[in-house]
Amino acid sequence: MSYKKEIIIRGIKIIDIGFITAIYLVLGIVLARGCDHYLGEFDEKAENKKPRWISIIELILYFWFLGVVIYFVRNIVYLIPFPMNGIYGFQHEKVKELSGDTTFAVAFVYFQNYYQKKLQNLLERL
User: Fold this and answer.
1) Which of these ranges, 11-15, 99-103, 116-120, has the smallest mean pLDDT?
2) Helical segments of the chain, H only
3) In the predicted model, is pLDDT for residue 92 greater than 70?
4) Given a cut of 70, is residue 1 above it in pLDDT?
5) How far apart are CA 96 and CA 71, in angstroms?
6) What are φ and ψ of residue 123, in 5° steps?
7) What are the boundaries of each domain within the chain?
8) Which of 112, 122, 120, 101 is CA-nearest to residue 35?
């Protein structure tokens, strides 16, 4: 492979990594806001009345939910076509970041106000 082709393919790969990261970030923010809207405002008084073990189980169930959401998002992102796929033989589906959903998980958890308040409340009660 010539150096010119190698440089072009690497450049396309860098653009693809940014493309994938942007999709995961946007989906993380949108779904986090959707969860906040669905769950409503965090009620600290009601939370403090629950036994700690109930709050811990709710946290475990939340992480189960997070894992399922990550699975679905990863499969959806995989289906989104990359506009530069095929140029100079570049293959979008071989980019490792396509299955690296860390950006989504961080954004999804970080932008959920309800979850952050619930977690902070549980940590204060432990």
Assistant:
1) 99-103
2) 3-39, 44-49, 52-79, 102-110, 113-125
3) yes
4) no
5) 16
6) -65, -35
7) 3-125
8) 112
CB 32 within 8 A of CB 107: yes
pLDDT for 30-87, tens place per residue? Answer: 999 999 999 888 888 888 888 988 888 988 998 899 889 989 998 998 888 888 887 8
Encode burial over 66-96: b for 16+ CB neighbours within 10 A, e otherwise: beebbeebeeebeeeebebeeeeebebeebe
C-beta neighbour count of 32 within 10 angstroms = 21
* Separation CA 24–CA 70 (nearest Å): 10
- 10 Å CB burial of residue 14 (0-12, 13-18, 19+) is exposed
Question: What pTM did the predictor assign?
Answer: 0.82
pLDDT at 25 over 90: yes
Long-range contacts (CB closer than 8 Å, 24 or more residues apart) made by 72-75: 73/24, 73/27, 73/31, 73/101, 73/104, 74/99, 74/101, 74/104
Residue count (the chain): 126
